[in-house]
Structure formats: structure tokens, C-alpha cells
Amino acid sequence: MFFSARLLAAKTNVAILGAAGGIGQPLSLLTKLNPAISNLALYDLVNTPGVAADLSHINTPAKVKGYKGPDELDAALKGADVVIIPAGVPRKPGMSRDDLFNTNAGIVKSLASAAARVCPDAHLLVIANPVNSTVPIVAEVFKKAGVYNPKRLFGVTTLDVVRASTFVAEAQTQATGKAIDPSDVKVTVIGGHSGVTILPILSQTGLSFSQEEVDALTHRIQFGGDEVVKAKDGAGSATLSMAQAGARFTDSLIRALNGEKNVVEPCFVESPVAAEQGIKFFASNVTLGKEGVDTIHPIGKLNAFEETLFEKVIPELKKNIQKGVEFANQA
Ligand SMILES: NC(=O)c1ccc[n+]([C@@H]2O[C@H](COP(=O)([O-])OP(=O)(O)OC[C@H]3O[C@@H](n4cnc5c(N)ncnc54)[C@H](O)[C@@H]3O)[C@@H](O)[C@H]2O)c1
Ligand SMILES: O=C(O)C[C@H](O)C(=O)O
């Protein structure tokens, strides 16, 4: 599927924080299957010994170890090259991602503080919501510790492009009667990871849509997370699709760190793309390289409809980022 890292020697150490959760478990499974990984540290407040024992029987190179509770956090992080953070509570119906801030901001801040101390050179992949705020929190924590490198911090927005491919392929198949493989449909998605901050650039796909289709697809991509939250009816949000998206991003990063060229993934990073609008973090396509972020791609041309969407991204994203920065800098 996406483990083109197959030909690499297993030499990357990965730690997953929140590894026993809804995302954590399938993400740990998919990460264990990645042959480029040598050590897989699974940290959570609960259940990691069992998850680790179970996964450790799979016959791939990664050595799996479980770490449970704050006393074992430093040991989980020791030697990590890549730290993935899905720790935090998910939404219930009726909640926005920002409603998770009060709980998740503190969780992410404390995990980031430990990472800044124990593995300051690791690449940090933030899944915990609200991503638009949790990524700035990690940046501030690393700055305070004097170890911030913006090339190594990523908000994982892969699920937005995974959804966009799926939804656009479905709509095109329906409209044309010709079966389209979703993985062949590439949609650039920019902005952030919540509601109106998610901006799919359908005009750049090279496909034709009616304005009605554009309206429906844009809305579905922006609010795809809500479909899952509603269907799970109180039992959480996307976990399995997120695990696939997170494992894909992790694999891409590892391939790039190992020298593979032209590895491009969308992600939410410290970015000059919307600096003119006063926005410090922004999601767009990024070429990954040996240091992490290599080249941040510009947005490219937007049509008039997308320009109006962009106007809506700016104030919301600015507010979300500011909230994270202020929280991280509270005493
Ligand atoms: N970025 C994205 O695209 C995306 C997609 C889906 C979900 N999410 C977010 O990911 C987060 C996790 O979702 P989930 O469905 O796995 O939730 P979950 O409740 O199933 O799992 C969360 C796990 O985090 C653990 N945890 C809580 N506090 C912790 C701490 N201090 N240290 C270590 N572990 C801790 C819990 O014990 C639990 O096992 C949520 O915030 C959700 O909104 C993001
Ligand atoms: O919708 C959510 O709350 C989880 C996640 O951000 C998603 O996009 O599925």
C-alpha cells in the first residue's frame, strides 16, 4: 500500500504517545508493519503492555516495547527519531475541534515538554486536535526549551487529502459513469485542520465540476470528520482512516529522512505561505527531505470561489494559532 520504505534498512526509532487509543492501536499496528522501523515505543496512560505484547509477535524488524504512565514517558522517548502524538480526547456529536482545547492543550503541552527534554532532535507529528492550536503549542514549548527547529514539527493533515481523493473520485465516477481509482485523484488541500480552515483546491485537479458539485464536495471535505463523529454516535471520531493517514505520513517522512527525493505530503507547518495575512502556521504541500521540511510549496492559482474560501480561512486560523501560543506561554 504505502510501505515503499521496504528497501531501507530498519534504523528509525518511532515513539507513539497515546498508543493504546482508538487511533493509537491501529496506527501502532501499521507502524509495526513498516520495515524501515527498528524500534517502536508505545506510550499511554493505560493498556500499552498488552498492545505491545500483541504487536511484538508480528514478524517485522521493529522491536516493540510498551511504556505505561508518566514515570515511563522519558524511557519511551529516549532515542526517538520520530514522535507521533495521537494522545488526547476525541469529539462527540455537537462538538467542534476547538471544544477539545481545554483538555488536549494540556496533554500535548506536557508531552511536548518531555520530548523537548529527552529527544530534542526528534521529528514531532501532531495528530491530537485541535491541530491548528496544538502544533503552535508544541512550537512554543520547544522554543522555551531552546530546541525548536521548524523543519521538524508537523501537524498531520493527511486525512484531509485522503478524504478529498475518495470523495472526488466517488463524485466523478458517479458523474461520468467511469470507475476512477481514488488513489489516482490528487487534490491539494491547504489551510488548517478544522471546518472552514480546510480549503480543497478543486480547480487544480484538472477535473471538471459543476458549481453545484464544487459546493457539495468542498463542504464534504471540510466537514468529513463530522460524518464519522455522527456515525460513531458518541463513541469518538475517525480512528481507522486516521491511522492509515498517519502511517502514510510517517512512512513518507522516513523515506525522505533516508534520502529519497521528491517525497511530497501536505502538512501543517511553520510556513511563509500566508505570512502576508499574519498567519505563521499553514497547511500546504511540502517536499520532505533529510532534515524534515525541505520545500514548502506555494498555494498556486485559486479561482474566485476559492479566493472567497481563503478569506474565511484567515481569521479562524489566526485565532486558533494565537490561542495555542497564548496557552503555551502561560506560566
Ligand atoms: N489530525 C487528524 O486528522 C485527526 C484525526 C482523527 C482524530 N484526531 C484527534 O486525535 C486524538 C485522539 O483520538 P482517538 O480517537 O485516538 O482518541 P482515544 O480517546 O480513543 O485515544 C486517546 C488515547 O490518548 C491517551 N491519553 C490521554 N492522555 C494522555 C497522556 N497525557 N499521555 C499519553 N496518552 C494519553 C488515552 O489513554 C487514550 O488511549 C483526538 O484529539 C482526535 O480529535 C485527529
Ligand atoms: O473530526 C474529528 O474530530 C477528528 C479528525 O480531526 C477528523 O478530521 O476526522
TrEMBL record:
EC numbers on record: 1.1.1.37
Example GO BP: malate metabolic process
Sequence positions that bind substrate: R91, R97, N129, R163
Catalytic activity reported: (S)-malate + NAD(+) = oxaloacetate + NADH + H(+)
Keyword NAD included in the entry's annotation: yes
Group of enzyme by EC: oxidoreductase
Protein keywords: NAD, Oxidoreductase, Tricarboxylic acid cycle
One GO cellular component term: cytoplasm
Active site positions, chain numbering: H193
Positions of the Lactate/malate dehydrogenase N-terminal domain: 13-155
Stretches assigned to the Lactate/malate dehydrogenase C-terminal domain: 157-327
PROSITE patterns for the chain: MDH
Gene Ontology terms for molecular function: L-malate dehydrogenase (NAD+) activity
Ligand binding (NAD(+)): G18, A19, A20, G21, G22, I23, G24, D44, N104, I127, A128, N129, M242
SUPFAM superfamilies: LDH C-terminal domain-like, NAD(P)-binding Rossmann-fold domains
SUBUNIT field: Homodimer.
Family: Belongs to the LDH/MDH superfamily. MDH type 1 family.
Name assigned to this protein: Malate dehydrogenase
Species for this entry: Caulochytrium protostelioides
